[in-house]
Amino acid sequence: RQFVIGEDLSAAARHLTSDWTCGETHSFDMLGEAALTAADSARYLQAYDTAIRQVGSLRPPPDIEQPSVSIKLSALHPRYEAQQWPRLQQELLPSLIALAEQASAAGVDLTIDAEEADRLELSLQLFAQLIAAVAPPVRARIGLVVQAYSKRAWPILHWLCELAMRHDTQIKVRLVKGAYWDTEIKRAQQRGLSSYPVFTSKAATDICYLACAHWLLDHPQQFFPQFATHNATTIAAILHRQPDATRYELQRLQGMGADLYHIVRAQHPNLRCRIYAPVGEHRELLPYLVRRLLENGANTSFMHNLHDPAIAIDSLASHPLQLEPPTFTALRNPAELWPQRINSRGIYLQSEIQRQSFFSELDNYRDRLYGGSLSATTNTVAVHNPYNDGLVGHWRSTDLAQLNILAANAREQQTSWQLTPIDERVAAIEKYADSLQTQRAELVALMARETGKTIENGLDEIREAVDLCRYYSQQARDLLTAPRHLPGTTGEDNQLSFMARGTIACISPWNFPLAIFTGQIVAALLTGNTVLAKPAEQATLTAQFATQLLHSAGVPTTVVQLVLGTGETVGQALCAHPAIDGIVFTGSLTTARAIQIQIAHRNGATIPFIAETAGINAMIADSSAQPEQLVKDIIRSAFDSAGQRCSALRVLYLPENTAATIEQLLNGALTQLTLGDPLHWSTDIGPVIDRDAHAQLLDYLAEQKTRKRIVCSLEVPAEGLFVPPTVVRLQRIDELQHETFGPILHILRYSNQKLETLVDDINALGYGLTCGIHSRNEQQALRLAKRLRVGNIYINRDIIGAVVESQPFGGMGKSGTGPKAGGQNYLHRFIVEKTITLNTSALGGDYRLLARQ
Ligand code: FAD
Ligand code: NAD
């Protein structure tokens, strides 16, 4: 009731007359938040359509402006994202043009709201196309919102000014400060961007707002400014700059700033004022309401400070340029997020300039052949792209005689590598990390062509590998630089130090061809071990590429060596080899068991075995879960990377009372996904890894189909190893005994059942990798989390994409032995402990004790 004018326009209409009497008109917002499905966007389009007609028929008194309508482009298309630009031009632009024409015919102004920075360039491109497409009278009624917290606000106004001149029109610009500040900060940090897209001090936003206001006021031919703010100081500065209040409009939000506007209007009777008035049903209100509550609760907010008796009015009324330098701790740039290491660098693909430069680099590697000279030799393996069967390259497997030579090298080099100062080892690994970043275009292309990784997945994987290098480097320095002194009696000096185990066999899977491969090897190398690395045969070219980078970065060629071939031949021989002192393995449970049996049959020392294996990962949603958020997280968790992540969601528990709605939303959102070439930016889901996986997954789906369990399934491209993303209905979780490593999600409905029993069922499977909980009841979520025997639990988010150091990754039970990768205990498993006790009084007396006396 505070922030929303009514559930529909007829309910809202009851309040209009009193606002009009106070001299204020309205801009109605249909509370359309982002659409997830085509049905959602059709519904929102219909709602805007109806609203325009209804608003056009409102008859305010003659001195009150006709109310207008505000729209959100994210409500008009389920994929309002830069990746989907061609679709947006074909599907969203026509809707926009139709709405603008209809608004003009009804005599109603239309304003396009500003949303997240990711959508900024899209909205401007669409706005420019809209302006160009419609007739001058229609053009005159279209406006848009510019956010002053954006570092791009000022150039945007220049660009808009030029647009207005080109089309000989006046654009209505609503100038706001911006409502997504915390989201922008979080995203920029997550993506490792070079800087934030928004200002990080409130004063900077206020100054930018005033600078933009001046620009708008100075270009009356091109702009009609609508200043949307509740900040009295901002309003005073505008009124001071342009006392002729007929030259612009002031705007406030429903439920905010009414008293302030009352006073301002009393002083400036000519001033036009407008209330942004959300209209909508309660179930759609939440994100909007949360934004308003955050806004009003923030201690930087003018409204909040106005009600704080401890804040002097003089300080509130100061011009932002006169403020003392900020006393709060400045936000670190995303690159400096971690206290002791540099964050891996991301690319802001939503910015066309950054995107184009990266994509043109990527083009150099779309057809590159690897290991070309091997093609004519025997014993070579040809690698084909799972998307189009195109040739990517060749590699040659290691035979047993070669393995013996490699193993002998590794043993011979081990002592000198271990005695290499830790700083030199770290320098080499950090150089390798840097080179992963400089070579990222080639790596992204290679991973896409060899293992079907999408561009975004490839970039994320490179960042993870870089973070692992830097995090383990920092830890290795802490552990190995100097021995630790232990407490004890006088006359004795006790030291604990760590030394390498010897030679480690690193056996990695294909689904993280770079990150897991790198993480295992780098941990072993930093702690002074030599490495025999056996990558998955499906990811050999990527492993070779990375190993060359390691060698170029200064790791001697005999310290890290590749052993290539299948698991059953070379993998087994490696695990059985007497030269190795430990095995670190990531892969399937079956392989882990096979290796464990092999270890049991070894003679000599008992060697350690780190095994990170499969999961049957669940997500429990309770009936308080927010459906749109839940569905977005389900889709990413289950279908990203074609479900070929160990952490991927396999079983979703939905409560009986909301299941139908959520399943419907899920089906609708699923059909919006694009399957195709992983090297195409618009692709959400690529092919599965190889013919075996493809055949097995299709067999599984055929079986589910005969059992009539398919809830929905997508069409797939005719060519390529695609498996239809599918939702399968289950009755009980124990119907699943094995991981289905593909884009297949199982759903279970539950009713009147204690959530604790679901947790017990999940635990009873014996796996324990990841699990998600979606609930607006935090206590409940935490209670369930405590009971779950699972390595990584995620509440109210997706369950994939663990971040190094923040979310150390690894499971328990059948899912792994630990220690967690990217966590603080990982390196310990690669070293042995040694104590040295020195009797300092052996030469006739305890001089330290005596000196002290
Ligand atoms: P103030 O208290 O002066 O400013 C608060 C604002 O300062 C915050 O919202 C934030 O933008 C900024 N800020 C706070 N802390 C910091 C910091 N540390 N560093 C940098 N900046 C900081 N917002 C949109 O994003 N899109 C829209 O389409 C939109 N439409 C609106 C329409 C109307 C009519 C109105 C009144 C507001 C609209 N808003 C929109 C919300 C608007 O962006 C502001 O969130 C809100 O008006 C608060 O700003 P203020 O000037 O009233 O208050
Ligand atoms: P996989 O078990 O088939 O192969 C993994 C590695 O082991 C490959 O290098 C393979 O050549 C080798 N190998 C196979 N048989 C061997 C043997 N007898 N002796 C020695 N080495 C042998 O697994 P995959 O198909 O490459 O990867 C997918 C699996 O990995 C999935 O089960 C997934 O859940 C799991 N995985 C787990 C994690 C985790 O962190 N828990 C991460 C990624 C993948």
Strand order of the largest sheet: 1-2-3-4-5-6-7-8
Structural class by secondary-structure content: alpha/beta
Give the termini separation: 78 Å
Instruction: Count every helix, treating DSSP H or I runs of 4 or more residues as helices.
Output: 29
The rough form would be described as globular
Q: Can you give the helix content as a percent range?
A: 40-55%
**Sheet bearing the most strands, described?**
8 strands, parallel, barrel
Ligand names:
flavin-adenine dinucleotide, nicotinamide-adenine-dinucleotide
Content of β-strand: 15-25%
Low-confidence stretches: none
> Taking all residues together, what is the mean pLDDT?
95
Radius of gyration: 31 Å
**Tally of strands:** 25
Structure in words:
It is built from 29 helices and 25 strands. The protein is α/β, with parallel strands linked by helices. Strands 1-2-3-4-5-6-7-8 form an eight-stranded parallel beta barrel, surrounded by seven helices. The protein has a seven-stranded mixed β-sheet with strand order 20-21-22-19-18-23-24, with helices on both faces. Helix 17 (422-438) packs antiparallel against helix 19, helix 17 (422-438) crosses helix 21 (540-552) and helix 18 packs across helix 19 (455-480). The protein is globular, with a radius of gyration of 31 Å. The protein starts with 8 loop residues before the first helix and ends with a helix. The model has no long low-confidence stretch (mean pLDDT 95). Bound molecules: flavin-adenine dinucleotide and nicotinamide-adenine-dinucleotide. Flavin-adenine dinucleotide binds at residues 113-114, 145, 147, 149, 174, 176-181, 199-202, 204-205, 228-231, 234, 251-253, 276, 295, 300-302.
